[in-house]
Amino acid sequence: MLSDTSLPVIKATLPVVGEHIEEIAKRFYKHMFDARPDLLDGLFNRGNQADGRQQQALAGSIAAFAGLLVDNVDQVPDHLLSRVAHKHVSLGLSPDQYQIVHDHLMWAIVDVLGDAVTPDVAAAWDEVYWLMANMLINKERGLYNAVHLTPDTIWRTWRVAERIQETDDVVRFVVERIDEREVKPSLPGQYVTIKMAMHDGVHQPRQYSLTKADDGQHRQFAVKRVHGLETPDGEMSTLLHNEVQVGDEVVLSAPFGDVVLEYTDRPLVLASAGIGITPMAGMLSHLVKSGSQRQVMLLHADDSEASFPLRGQVRRTWPP
Ligand SMILES: Cc1cc2nc3c(=O)[nH]c(=O)nc-3n(C[C@H](O)[C@H](O)[C@H](O)COP(=O)(O)OP(=O)(O)OC[C@H]3O[C@@H](n4cnc5c(N)ncnc54)[C@H](O)[C@@H]3O)c2cc1C
Ligand code: HEM
Q1: Of 231, 279, 288, 303, which one has the greatest count of Cβ atoms within 10 A?
Q2: Whose Cα sits closest to atom 21 in ligand 2?
Q3: Which DSSP letter does residue 256 get?
Q4: 232 lines ligand 1 (CB under 6 A)
Q5: Residue 110, Cβ density class (10 Å: 0-12 exposed, 13-18 middle, ≥19 buried)
Q6: Could you give the residue numbers annotated as active site?
Q7: For the purposes of burial, counting CB atoms within 10 Å of the CB of 4, is it exposed (0-12), middle (13-18) or buried (19 or more)?
Q8: In a 10 Å sphere around its CB, with 0-12 CB exposed, 13-18 middle and 19+ buried, how is residue 259 labelled?
Q9: 298 C-alpha to ligand 2 centroid (Å)
Q10: Spatial CA neighbour of 17 closest among 109, 95, 108
Q11: Taking the mean position of all CA atoms in its chain, how far away is CA 209?
């Protein structure tokens, strides 16, 4: 996969890139957002920018990929690609945006490693980037095609039909369709991205698992209020809790996500804690709807019965 010319160069520079990946990631994002502040309006999660570990995910995964290539592993594990591709398409990423990330990431590598980045080194890392980018672009094209959508058409406006206070800090929203477009079916365990304008006018996306099987008219999701202790309160969850009321309109992506229930008859164990019940509730709802006879054990941990979100739904629907 990696050319014979690039392989020894990547082998030789991987340790130094790995060692500086945190700094590379930091400078990459700063440089990119200085040049393209529009990417923080509706695409990147600005809460993640305050979190160094999350910031590292993108650049770090390219270094990890280079490691796989050097170890002669022909294939990137599909579940890694899949997870990223699903996240990307749930945000409406388009292939042309890969050039932007490329340019700023390569700039950051040169900025941090300086003269060590000879033309050969730059060319080898370029090759690594585009190998991974092309795999993702292909996978993402497949995901868009499978649901007959494009980066622009994944978004759709829904109206809040119900808002149910599940527990002290979890609200469940039921939204209803307001147009005639086909409602894309969801697989058990998938999520949608919600995109909303924050108080300063900047749009922010966040993912929420679907908690109910499709009925062709509605979607449901449940949101836990994120309290910051020494950090700010969560932006989206606070806005949804404090301000979004019945009758308001919200913009959601089509459903995506690769951690989904397989259609088999095998016994199933679902384990969750706190708000982690949301995809499990969605899966159970799908099983009930399809008349599944599977043996299911749900293990859920919570502080108390009162703090167990969706307890009513889970208890009512299962066993069917
Ligand atoms: C696939 C998927 C499914 C999900 N499903 C659900 C679900 O069903 N229900 C659910 O409730 N959530 C779910 N989530 C989580 C959800 O997407 C959001 O991450 C969550 O609601 C928090 O978003 P927020 O905007 O409220 O918080 P953010 O504003 O994104 O803040 C997140 C954290 O960063 C900290 N932070 C923010 N700014 C700063 C700063 N400047 N300095 C230091 N720290 C800072 C905050 O204090 C907070 O702890 C899911 C996430 C994924 C990826
Ligand atoms: C080869 C190129 C790329 C790689 C290897 C990559 C890798 C990743 C990884 C590992 C994640 C975290 C996934 C998760 O949390 O589940 C991620 C998330 C994300 N990626 Fe990419 N990515 C690439 C290109 C791009 C491009 C071109 C864009 C858009 C300009 C982009 C935008 C995002 C966004 C918005 C997120 C969500 C996280 C956040 O908002 O902070 N990525 N990517």
Answers
A1: 279
A2: 58
A3: B
A4: yes
A5: middle
A6: 98, 140
A7: exposed
A8: middle
A9: 32
A10: 109
A11: 10
Q: Which stretches in the chain have pLDDT values below 70?
A: 73-74, 318-320
Superfamily of domain 6-146, CATH level 4: Globins (1.10.490.10)
pTM beyond cutoff 0.70:
yes
102 C-alpha vs ligand 2 centroid, how far in Å?
12
Give the position, in ligand 1's atom list, of the atom nearest the Cα of 232.
Answer: 47
Classified as helix, coil or strand, 174 is strand
What is the number of the ligand closest to the CA of 233? Answer: 1
Q: How far is the CA of 171 from the centre of ligand 1 (A)?
A: 15
Atom of ligand 1 nearest to the CA of 45: 30
Domain extent listing, the chain:
6-146, 156-252, 268-317
CATH of domain 156-252: 2.40.30.10
Q: Which amino acid is at 278?
A: T
**Centre of ligand 1 from the C-alpha of residue 284, in Å:** 24
Indicate whether residue 139 lines ligand 2 (CB < 6 A): no
What is the structure's pLDDT at 68? Answer: 87
* Angstrom distance (rounded) from CA 52 to CA 22: 8
What is the helix (H) or strand (E) element at residue 301, kind and residue range?
strand 296-301
pLDDT, tens digit, 9 for 90 and up, residues 30-85: 999 999 999 999 999 998 888 777 788 888 898 888 888 888 766 777 888 999 99
pLDDT at 2: 87
Give the residue carrying structure tokens 């920018």: 49
- Please determine whether the domains at 156-252 and 268-317 fall in the same fold group of CATH: no
Helix 97-113 vs helix 119-146: crossing angle, to nearest 10: 150
Q: 272: helix, coil or strand?
A: strand
Q: Which atom of ligand 2 lies closest to the CA of 132?
A: 1
Please state, in angstroms and as integers, the Cα–Cα distance from residue 103 to each residue in 6, 84, 108, 129, following that order: 19, 20, 9, 10
pLDDT recorded at residue 153:
96
pLDDT value for 148: 96
